[in-house]
C-alpha cells in the first residue's frame, strides 16, 4: 500500500512545500532542465532585442490524456507553438502550468512531461517557467495543462486574421479531421479498425520556410476546435472579406473520410492539431505551396480556394455542379474536450 | 427553464464555435478590451525595446471562488503581477486562460472577470490574450484560472532567490497569514467573528518604489503557498546562505493571531497573497523600509532578521530567551487549494 501511494500525486505535492520541491527536482527539472528554468525563481528572465514579440496561451483538457499520435503533453507544446507561429512569430519560450487531480499516477505524469520534452526539442523551444497545483479527488479530471508562449515576430512580417485580401489564395497544409476523429474513436471505444492517428505536430519550422518564401502571407490560422469551417468564418469576419472554397479540394485520409461518412460528421468542422490554413497573395502562392510541401507536415498541402470581395463575412463552398452553399461557424459542440 | 439555462455555461461555450465567440464578444471584450486583445488573433503582438523580460505563470484553483478581500479573478491577476515583481520586473501584459465546469453561473463568471478588470487597472497591466475551455459537470470544480505574465526588468536590477548575501537585512512588508486564514474560515464555515480578510493585492507599485530607493535589493519573494517559512528556506537553499529571524518580529493581525492559536496553526506557514519578503544590503535597508511604508500595502513593513554566513541552507529563529530553533520548509499540506 505504501509503495502504491508513493506512485500517486497527493495534495501535499501541490502545497508549495517540501513535496512540491521534490516533484520539481525529481520529475520536472531532469526532463526540462535549462539554465532559465533551473534558477527556480518566481519567473524567468531573458534578454530581447528591439522588435516585436507574440504572446499566447491555451489550456488543454483533452480526454483521454493519451491517444494515438500524441498525448496531452505533446498537444500542450504543439498547440501553443502553433498559436505563436500563426502570428508569424518564431516561438522561443513556453510556460507550463499543471492542475493535477489527487491520486494521479506519477509514472503517467512522468510520461507526459517526457512528451513535453520531446515536442519542445522538436519545436526548438524551451520551457522556462511553470507551476503545479493539486486539487482533491473529483475536483478535476486527471490532469489539465496550460501552456503560454513567447515568440519573436521577424521584421517585415505582418500576419493577422484581419489581413486577408480579396484575390489571396487559400492554402491548406494537409488532411482534415485526423485529431478529432482519433479522440472520438478513443473516447467512445468505437473499435474502428482504420489507421487513424492525431496529426498533433509543431508547425513552426514549416511556417519559417513559408515566410522565407514570401512576405505576402497575409493570414495564418490553425483550424483546431470548430475545424476549418469555423476558422475560415473567423477570418472572413475579421478581415471583412468573402472566402470561396472548392468542394472536395480539402484532402482527407481515407479512414477519416469513411468514419465521418459513417457517423455523419462533416470533416470541415472536425478539429485538427497539426494543420494550418494560409491566405497568400496569388502571385506568391505557388512558391509558398512548394515550401510547404518540402516540410514533412506539409506534404499534402494544396490550394483549396480564394479570398473574394463578394459576400464579406461569409464562407461559401462551390460544388462540382457549379452551385454554391454557405458554410457557417460551428454551432453547438461537436465533441467536447478535444484539446 | 430556458431562462435559467441561458445563465449557465454549457459545453458549447468551449467548442470554439459560435457560442465561444458570443462569450468572448459579450463577456470578455467589454470588460477587458484593449487594442491588442481586440484583434482576436491566436496570440497578441507587441513591440519591445532591447533589454530583459520576465515571464511567469500560475494556475489558480482557490476554493471558495469568492472570499472576503477578493475572489479568484483578483487573485489570478495579483499573483502573477507579484511573481513578475519578485523578479524585479515591471509587469506589462497578462494572458488569461479559463477552465470552466459545465453549468457554471454566467453572472458569477461576469463578476470574476470584472475583478480581473479592476485588479488589472490597479496594477496597470493589460490582459492581451486568452483561452476558454469548458469541461463536463464533475470534471472540474467550478472554475480554474491560469494567468501568465510578461514584464520588463529595468537596467541595473538583479533580483533573484540566488542573490541573498550574508549581512543583508530581511524585510517583511506586513502581517502574516491573512489570506490563508480567510480561506480556512470560509471553507470550514467556522463562523469566526474576527475581522479577517485576504491580503490579496498587487505589489508592483511598492516594488517600483523599493527599487528606486535601492539597486541593492538582492532578493524578493512573495510568501504564498507554504508561507514565510517555506519561502525563506527556498532562498536559503538557492543562495546557500543562512537566514536568522527574530521571534515575534513578524507582524500579525490580532484576529489571525487568535485564530492560529485556537487552531494550532503556525502563521509562519500560512499563505499570504499581498506580502513580500526582501533581502536588502544592510546600508540601504532603512531607505527601502521607508519606501515600503509609504505604500498602502507596506504600512506595517519591518525588518525581521538578517542573512548570515552561518548554517547555509538553514532558517533559524532566535527566541527572546536567546535560544535558537531551526524552521523547516512546510511538510505535508496545511490547507489545500489556498490559491
Describe the structure.
The structure is a homodimer of 339-residue chains. By secondary structure, chain A is α+β, with helices and mostly antiparallel strands. Chain A has two domains: 5-153, 2-Layer Sandwich (60s Ribosomal Protein L30, Chain: A), CATH 3.30.1330.10; 169-326, Alpha-Beta Complex (Phosphoribosyl-aminoimidazole Synthetase, Chain A, domain 2), CATH 3.90.650. Helix content of chain A is 32%, strand content 25%. Chain A has ten helices and 14 strands. The first copy, chain A, has helices at residues 2-6, 18-32, 35-38, 72-85, 106-123, 178-188, 204-213, 227-239, 254-263, 285-293; strands at residues 44-48, 51-60, 66-67, 70-71, 90-101, 126-135, 143-153, 169-172, 217-221, 242-246, 277-280, 302-308, 315-318, 324-327. In chain A, a hairpin with a 5-residue loop joins β13 (315-318) and β14 (324-327). In chain A, α2 (18-32) runs parallel beside α5 (106-123), α4 packs parallel to α5 and α7 runs antiparallel to α10 (285-293). The radius of gyration of chain A is 21 Å and the shape is globular. At the A-B interface, α2, β1, β2, α4 and β5 of A face α2, β1, β2, α4 and β5 of B. β1 of chain A pairs antiparallel with β2 (51-60) of chain B, so a sheet runs across the interface.
Largest interface, counted by CB within 8 Å of the partner chain's CB: A-B, 87 and 88 residues
Largest sheet of chain A: 7 strands, mixed
Order of helices and strands of chain A: HHHEEEEHEHEEEHHEHEHEHEEE
CATH-assigned homologous superfamily of the largest domain in chain A: PurM-like C-terminal domain
Proportion in helices of chain A? 25-40%
Domains of chain A (count): 2
CATH class of the largest domain in chain A: Alpha Beta
Global structural class of chain A: alpha+beta
Give Rg of chain A in angstroms: 21 Å
Amino acid at each position: 500500500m505504501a509503495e502504491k501511494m508513493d506512485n500517486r500525486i497527493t495534495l501535499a505535492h501541490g502545497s508549495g512545500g517540501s513535496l512540491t520541491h521534490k516533484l520539481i527536482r525529481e520529475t520536472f527539472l531532469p526532463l526540462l532542465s535549462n539554465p532559465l528554468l533551473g534558477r527556480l525563481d518566481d519567473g524567468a528572465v531573458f534578454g530581447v532585442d528591439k522588435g516585436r514579440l507574440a504572446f499566447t496561451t491555451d489550456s488543454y483538457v483533452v480526454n483521454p490524456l493519451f491517444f494515438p499520435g500524441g498525448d496531452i503533453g505533446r498537444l500542450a507544446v504543439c498547440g501553443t507553438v502553433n498559436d505563436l507561429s500563426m502570428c508569424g512569430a518564431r516561438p522561443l519560450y513556453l510556460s507550463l502550468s499543471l492542475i493535477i487531480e489527487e491520486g494521479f499516477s506519477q509514472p503517467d505524469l512522468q510520461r507526459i512531461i517526457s512528451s513535453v520534452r520531446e515536442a519542445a526539442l522538436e519545436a526548438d523551444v524551451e520551457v522556462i517557467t511553470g507551476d503545479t497545483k493539486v486539487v482533491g479527488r473529483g475536483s478535476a479530471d486527471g490532469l489539465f495543462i496550460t501552456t503560454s508562449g513567447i515568440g519573436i515576430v521577424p521584421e517585415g512580417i505582418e500576419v493577422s486574421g484581419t489581413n486577408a485580401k480579396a484575390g489571396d489564395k487559400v492554402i491548406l497544409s494537409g488532411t482534415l479531421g485526423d485529431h478529432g476523429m482519433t479522440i472520438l474513436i478513443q473516447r467512445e471505444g468505437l473499435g474502428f479498425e482504420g489507421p487513424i492517428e492525431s496529426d498533433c505536430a509543431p508547425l513552426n519550422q514549416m511556417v519559417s520556410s513559408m515566410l522565407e518564401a514570401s512576405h505576402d502571407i497575409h493570414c495564418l490560422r490553425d483550424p483546431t476546435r470548430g475545424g476549418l469551417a469555423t476558422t475560415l468564418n473567423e477570418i472572413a469576419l475579421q478581415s471583412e472579406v468573402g472566402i470561396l472554397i472548392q468542394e472536395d479540394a480539402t484532402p482527407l485520409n481515407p479512414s477519416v473520410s469513411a468514419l465521418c461518412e459513417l457517423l455523419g460528421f462533416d470533416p470541415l468542422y472536425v478539429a485538427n492539431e497539426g494543420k494550418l490554413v494560409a491566405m497568400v497573395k496569388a502571385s506568391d502562392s505557388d512558391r509558398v505551396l512548394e515550401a510547404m510541401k518540402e516540410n514533412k507536415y506539409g506534404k499534402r498541402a494544396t490550394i483549396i480556394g480564394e479570398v473574394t470581395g463578394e459576400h464579406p463575412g461569409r464562407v461559401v463552398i462551390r460544388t462540382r455542379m457549379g452551385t454554391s452553399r454557405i458554410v457557417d461557424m460551428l454551432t453547438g459542440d461537436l465533441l467536447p474536450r478535444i484539446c
